[in-house]
Amino acid sequence: MENRRFVPVIVVLLIAVILLIYLSSSIFYTIRPGERAVLFYKFGKGMDKENIQMPGFHVKAPYNELFVYDVTENQVEETLDVLDRNGLSISVDVSVRFHPMFDKIGYIQETFQQDYVNRLVVPEVRSTVRQVMGRFSAEEIYSTKRPEVEGAIKSETEAVLGAEGNYIQMRALLIRSIKLPEQIGLAIENKLKQEQEALAYQFRLDREKSEAERKRIGAEGEAAANKIINSSLTDELLKMRGIEATQQLANSPNAKIVVIGSAKDGLPLILGNN
């Protein structure tokens, strides 16, 4: 009889355990590395945008709703048909890398929900690419101003995605390829080739002019040096140098023949067998 008094307690405990097991997935949850989460309190303050759930083990009321976000770097690749400044159709492949701002996922959930990539990122990237490329010609996009185009798309997309209410941090934006109509592409390539050839020809002309100028300056310098030397070669100096050379030859141990000059100031000519 005494054991029967514990039966209701055991039944209640058993039911509680079963309910706990059944609701465990709604009560206990784990946030993995690279994730953040926010809670929606159905019977309370609604979306708790300020308290971000960090990685780890957590407990919540079973009726509150949990929204988990992957905050690691994401990538979207888009192939777009855009028009240049002159209305020419261009096909461009773009890659953009981004992630949601960790502490703003509550605002993202409230505005765009977890489909923020398709609702926010993709449309804004497409719109910015079309707007920026519409300010340039096909030739500028394809060759001469490609870095400028890519930089403008990156800065403007980054500003839009990171604006108040969007809260997306863009990491990089790359233009993978640009495809023009075949005839236009060939025309631009031929024009660039001719420009390169003209630059090469101009370089050769400048180099030859520089070489000619160098030779002229060298010749003028040599002429000036000779003029100075000639002006310093007086008769007295030449006679003195001749006497010095004659003395050196006379003092040489080698056999020699000396021919005496016949002029007034003639110097002897010494001939030897060595």
TrEMBL record:
<dbReference type="Pfam" id="PF01145">
    <property type="entry name" value="Band_7"/>
</dbReference>
<dbReference type="InterPro" id="IPR001107">
    <property type="entry name" value="Band_7"/>
</dbReference>
<keyword id="KW-0812">Transmembrane</keyword>
<dbReference type="InterPro" id="IPR036013">
    <property type="entry name" value="Band_7/SPFH_dom_sf"/>
</dbReference>
<feature type="domain" description="Band 7">
    <location>
        <begin position="26"/>
        <end position="192"/>
    </location>
</feature>
<protein>
    <submittedName>
        <fullName>Prohibitin family protein</fullName>
    </submittedName>
</protein>
<dbReference type="InterPro" id="IPR000163">
    <property type="entry name" value="Prohibitin"/>
</dbReference>
<feature type="transmembrane region" description="Helical">
    <location>
        <begin position="6"/>
        <end position="31"/>
    </location>
</feature>
<keyword id="KW-1133">Transmembrane helix</keyword>
<keyword id="KW-0472">Membrane</keyword>
